[in-house]
Amino acid sequence: MTSVLRHGAPQFPPISGTVPPSDQAAMETALQEVRASKEAWVAIPVGERMRILDQLIRDFAALAPRWVAACLTAKGLAPTALAAAEEWSNGPYCVLRNLRLLRQSLADIQASGKPRIPGPVRTRPDGQVTAQVFPENIADRILFGGVRAEVWMEPGVSAADLPATQALIYAEKQHPGQVALVLGAGNVSSIGPTDILYKLFVEDAVVLFKTNPVNAYLGPLLLEGFRALVERGALRVVYGGAAEGAYLCQQASVDEIHVTGSDKTFDAIVFGTGPEGAQRKAENRPVLNKRVTGELGNVSPVIVVPGPWSASDLAYQAEHIATMLVNNAGFNCNATRVILQHASWDRREALLARIRAVLARVPLRAAYYPGARDRQQAFMEAHAEAEQFGTPDGDELPWTLIPGVGAENSDDIAFTTEAFCGLFAETPIAAATVPAFIERAVAFCNDAVWGSLNATLLVHPASLRDPAIKAAVERAVADLRYGTVAVNYWAAINFALGTTTWGAFPGHALNDIQSGTGVVHNTLMFARPQKSVLRAPFRSIPTPPWFVLHGRAGRVVFARLVRMEAEPSLLKVPAIALAALRT
C-alpha cells in the first residue's frame, strides 16, 4: 500500500530498527522520573543553567565526530562522499550553535533581564515590528557576508512592548513545572536535540524524548551529550514507533506534546484514529485536553523573479535550487518542491537546463526514509512526463523533475502533497509584467500550495533597481504566509541560525493544521513571533559550503565551524574563511 496521502505530508509506515522499542514499564519509569524533577528544574537559577549549557557544549563537541560517523553509516555514505558535509552542518553544527546562543541569552538575562537583540528594532509602515537577529556577532558578519535575518512580530506588538515579550519564563519563576513529550524526527539529526533544548531552556519544561525509529541509533549519543540534563532528571530518552508514541501521548503525566513529522500523525494525536478520529476532526473536537505543537512539513516553493541573469548567474542559481532538493537525499521538509517561473521569461528554459545539468552530476543517494519509493511512484503515475536523472543501484532513487505543471491545476499532487523524496516540480505562471508575476506567484503559494513552513524568492540585483519590482518583492515578503521567507538564500538556512524562529505561519485551525503550530529555536525567546525573514546577496562570495557540488570543501568548513561554536575565537575565522574560499 502506498504511503502517500493527498493534501498534506506523507504518513510513514512503521519500520523495524536495530534498537528495540521500550516496553511500557520502562516508559512509565522514565516518565515518572522526569515528572519528579519538573519543579526542581524550574527552580534552577540562571547561573546554574549557564553552567549546564557549558557542560553540554563540551560534551556535544567531544562526540561530534562519532555523531557524524553514525549518520554517515546509517545513510550509506562514505566519509569522503560529496554529501558528507551535510552531516556536519545538519547535525553537530546546528546543535552547538543553538547551545552557544542559549548560553549567550542566559548571560544577557543574568546581566539585564532580557536576551540582547543584536540588530535594530524597526516598525514597518503598516505598524508591524521587526527585530534584526542575525548577524549575531563579528564572526557571523565575516563568515556570512551580507546575510541578515529578522524576526517579524505578530501585529499588535509595539517596539516599546517587545522586551516584555522576551524570556517570559525567566521573568516569572513562580509557574508550575511541565512535562513535555517530544516525538523525534528521523531525517535530520539536530531536530530532536534542538527541540529538547527549546522545551527546557525557553519553555521551562522537562522532557521525555522518544526517538524516531529511523535514527534511533543516535539515542546512546543523545544520552552522552545530554548527560548534564539526564543526571538532573530533566531528560529521559525512550525508543519506539507509532505504538509507543500513542501510549505516551495518552498518559496523564504528560502535560504537553511536540512532534516533528506528518500532519497525519498530528491529527492522530489530537483527534484519534479511524472513523471516530475522522469525525472528531471534522467537528474539531480534540480527544486530548493538552497543548500539542508541531512542525509538520511543507510543499516548499521557490519563486524565481525574472531578470537579466547571465550564464554564470544561471549556473549559480541552478546549483542553489538543486541543492535545496538533494540535501539529505530530499528527505527535508524545506526541500525545493515547486519552482515558480514567469511563463514568458526568456531564461526560463535555460535555468531548467542548468538544473538538469546539476542533477546529472550529483551522485544518487540511498532512499533510507520509509515509503520513499511509493511516494515517488505516486508522483510518476500522475506525471508521465517526469524527468529522471542518474541510474539507481540497489535502494537508490533517481533525482526527479516534473517541468511545466500547470498552475490552473490547483489540485495537482505537486501542489497538494509533500513528496518527501528527491523529487520536485516546475510551474510557469503567466503575467503581463514582472510585478504582476510576483503578485500572482505569492497568491498561488498562499492559496494553492500546501503548507506554510518556508518559501524562497530569487531576485537579481538589477531587477531590484526597478522601483516597481522592488516594491513587489517587498510586498511579497510581507504577504507570504510562511514561517520563514528567504530572499536569495535557501529558507532552510533559517533552521540553522538559532536566533530566528522555525515553524509554521501562525493561525492554522487545529483540524487543518498543515505545517503545524508553535515555533522552536528562537534563542532570543520571543513570545509573539509571526515569521522570520532572511535576506542575502543574489550571489554569495565565496559560494556557500552547503552547495551540493562544493561538498568536499564543505566538510572542512563545517567541521571547523563546529569547533568554532564550541570554543568561539576570532582567531579561528581565517582558517574557516580560507577553507570556504576553496569551494
Please, could you describe this protein's structure?
The chain is 42% helix and 16% strand. With 583 residues, the chain is of the alpha/beta class. It has four domains: 24-115 and 166-295, Aldehyde Dehydrogenase, Chain A, domain 1 (3-Layer(aba) Sandwich); 120-165 and 483-539, no CATH class; 300-479, Aldehyde Dehydrogenase, Chain A, domain 2; 548-581, no CATH class. The strands form four sheets. The chain has an eleven-stranded mixed sheet, sandwiched between helices. The chain has a six-stranded mixed sheet with strand order 6-5-4-7-8-19, sandwiched between helices. Strand 1 (121-123) and strand 2 (129-134) form a beta hairpin. Helix 4 (84-112) packs parallel to helix 21. Residues 1-6 and 12-16 have low confidence and may be disordered.
Short description:
This protein is of the alpha/beta class and 583 residues long. It is 42% helix and 16% strand.
